[in-house]
């Protein structure tokens, strides 16, 4: 299952708070239509078939394809002063 670094947890919590999402909100990661990349959006709640990863209040909703792709990965993130967010995916352990 995908894990989140401390940085990713803080950045995700900030994104969701700035988007004024509901308390059930988080970021949703989905496989793009071509299957070559991932899309990240703010979502008010997970969709019915999403896998939910939660750590330190940060919620990540993974569509079924993204859940398979990210199963053995760790998500890291950083936020720049201008508001730009960069996500990085690495191998666990």
UniProtKB/TrEMBL annotation:
It comes from Agrococcus sediminis. It comes from the Bacteria. This is Fe-S cluster assembly protein HesB. InterPro entries: HesB-like_dom_sf.
């Amino acid at each position: 299952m995908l894990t989140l670094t401390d940085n990713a947890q803080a950045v995700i919590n900030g994104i969701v708070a700035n988007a004024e999402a509901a308390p059930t909100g988080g970021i949703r990661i989905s496989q793009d239509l071509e299957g070559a990349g991932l899309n990240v959006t703010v979502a008010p709640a997970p969709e019915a078939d999403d896998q939910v990863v939660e750590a330190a209040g940060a919620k990540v909703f993974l569509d079924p394809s993204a859940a398979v792709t990210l199963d053995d990965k760790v998500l890291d993130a950083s936020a720049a002063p201008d508001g730009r967010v960069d996500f990085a995916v690495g191998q666990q352990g």
